[in-house]
Amino acid sequence: MSLPESTTVLIVGAGPSGIVTALSLIHHGCRDFVIVDTVLQGQNTSRALVIQSATLEALDTIGCAETMVESGWKSNGLSFRNRSSNSDLFYADFTSLSKYTPYPHVLIISQTTTERVLEEKLESFGVSVIRPYKVIGMQRNKQENDVTDVSFEDGRVIKARYVIGADGARSAVRTISGIGFADPNELDRDLSSTNMLSQMVIADIYLTDTSLVPDNHTVSVMSLDTFFMISPIPREIDEVKGMLYRISCGVPLEMGTPPHAPPKEYLQNILDKFGPKPLKAASSFEISEVLWSTRFRTHSAIADTFFKRLGSDTDMDAKGGGGILLVGDAAHIHSPAGGQGMNLGLRDAVAMGEAMSAHIEASQTSPPTDDHILRDLADSRHATALEVIAMTKNILGFYGLPRNPTWNKFMWWCPLSLGSIRDYTLWMAGRFRFVRESAAWQMSGLGRR
């Protein structure tokens, strides 16, 4: 498919957030858009794995939830387990949300599957992603003040009244338009200067022993100063390789920097050191194959604004210029704690399509409408992103406690570590149903629709 000379809306990036933005536009009656991506096809990795209740509700409003649910695996909850005693401390029960949502569960579905399902849905409307096109420049059109000329690496240019950056954490749209991107709390200390979790590994692995995790929920194994999370990934069991699992683990600083793509041997060591303990003392869980693995540093950042007009570099609110909007990782990133990242982006995208369609329709009136529709959306989603970032930081801090807290030198007589106090507090809180339901509510996103 060739690139047209002009369009009303240009969506840059065809990950889940970009495709859902396109689907939301279609649902709300806007078909004059183009969606492009830098790669020839989606990445063959799982990456994001969780879709929460609130996200499924949002997807349902544009007719996308049913197929997603059919393609995934329903997890009833998340259990927190003490590795030393190998006993459960707390269970966040998502089935308790049945009185609030038609989706009282966590949907486990690989991002590869998510992208395939969404792109097939988009193609059913006769729309295809145009690949590969890499944005390298944007400037005001000389004839039309509210139009942006977007330049691509191959020299082509497209005119667009609105440009939606759904092109990830290293967003070209955000960078070129001069929107800042930083941690929302400048007073936060660098995680590496504390004993909190500043580095993690994530991998999809095959294990021959399929009894590692119950088939109806995810398990988080808690050690003194880190955690190990494991969840089955929906796929037929391979008779030789075993069952496919997603594992994620915070790597303590004393273990050094993890390899770029952690190999089987490294991941086996992580599993043995921090993963669930086998029921038999002499046995162990063995990784038969690594499908995909990566490392990353846990950090958060949010764009200064999710909407601006392409004005001067020094005037973010300059009048005139094409509309620039951000969605998904281009707008905000944070640690994967709590499984919120892609969910926030997908809810951004659903809301974006509705607001964008309303703004386009209102702009047909005379005189043209102002930008309050898009600014209100941007402000609302920005506030929600800040709340989610704060929550993920709190979760990460809960997992990665200091091994030798400052107060410990004054309480040398106390036999309990912070990890022990944390685990006991978690066990006590888990005795109360409303606490378990509250934990599920917070992670589900239902309070931040």
Automatic annotation (TrEMBL):
<dbReference type="InterPro" id="IPR050641">
    <property type="entry name" value="RIFMO-like"/>
</dbReference>
<dbReference type="GO" id="GO:0071949">
    <property type="term" value="F:FAD binding"/>
</dbReference>
<keyword id="KW-0274">FAD</keyword>
<dbReference type="GO" id="GO:0016709">
    <property type="term" value="F:oxidoreductase activity, acting on paired donors, with incorporation or reduction of molecular oxygen, NAD(P)H as one donor, and incorporation of one atom of oxygen"/>
</dbReference>
<protein>
    <recommendedName>
        <fullName>FAD-binding domain-containing protein</fullName>
    </recommendedName>
</protein>
<dbReference type="InterPro" id="IPR036188">
    <property type="entry name" value="FAD/NAD-bd_sf"/>
</dbReference>
<feature type="domain" description="FAD-binding">
    <location>
        <begin position="7"/>
        <end position="361"/>
    </location>
</feature>
<keyword id="KW-0285">Flavoprotein</keyword>
<dbReference type="InterPro" id="IPR002938">
    <property type="entry name" value="FAD-bd"/>
</dbReference>
<dbReference type="Pfam" id="PF01494">
    <property type="entry name" value="FAD_binding_3"/>
</dbReference>
<keyword id="KW-0560">Oxidoreductase</keyword>
